[in-house]
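To: structure subgroup
Subject: Chain for Friday's discussion

All,

I'm putting the inputs and outputs inline so they're searchable in the archive.
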Amino acid sequence: MIRKISNILFNQFNDIFLGMKGHKQKMFWIGMILFLGFILIGHSIYPQLSRTQAGTVILLQFFFSLIVIPVLFLSIFLISLSLILNLSEKRKGAFPSLIILFVLWGLIQLTSLDFFLIAAPFEKLAMITKSEFVCKYMPVIKKVYKNKCYQELALAAKNADICNRIDSDSYDLFVNREKCYTDIAYHMRDELICEKIDSQTKRNDCYISLAQSKEDESICEKIILNQEQKDICYYNMVWWAKKDTSLCEKIVNPSYRSSCYNK
């Protein structure tokens, strides 16, 4: 049984990788050389560039990625195309289905490399230049990376208006317009920024965060239409801001109030 499986695998390997001639063989080995070069350079240089926030090195990382991306995909393209042509030549009629699989596999690879080779360097470049232009023209497939770029840039530049660039239909838990406003309000200690949030629940969350940042229990009074959020705000004042336990009296939920007194 094992010998039979081994023979099948060997024959499959022989069909796909061996017996290449002419332009198919050249494409395969050029692709392999480029791919191995990418692996060696990537493992030796890219990690060092990623560990630092120094402006010059981040710029080098940015341009390094612009070179690496086309080299990587050229190598994948050449290897895959040479294998497809070789296999289709041996098995007539397989070419159309192999092309479809090749395209789908390429798209999967492209989306998986979006962040590591494109989004991260562009985001760091945006932090240096403080430019929305870099985030806007980031060549990525997933919108969440552009939104994250805007969110990080807004916080770095302390500019809440940049949050408006984030797609309003972004439902990512950590990257969305409301989270952007809340983070800036927390760091700038500015109540007016919370008022830019349309959702009352999210605005209340912003007030909870801001009250903790300023250690100001009066901000809890701005929380409306949700008593539980208001209770949490007062609870945080006692537990995290080290306020007097007399604030526990303002908590309606018995469980929260009991826990508040037992701090």
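Points worth raising on Friday:
Residues 1-129 form one domain.
The two ends are 68 Å apart (CA to CA).

D.
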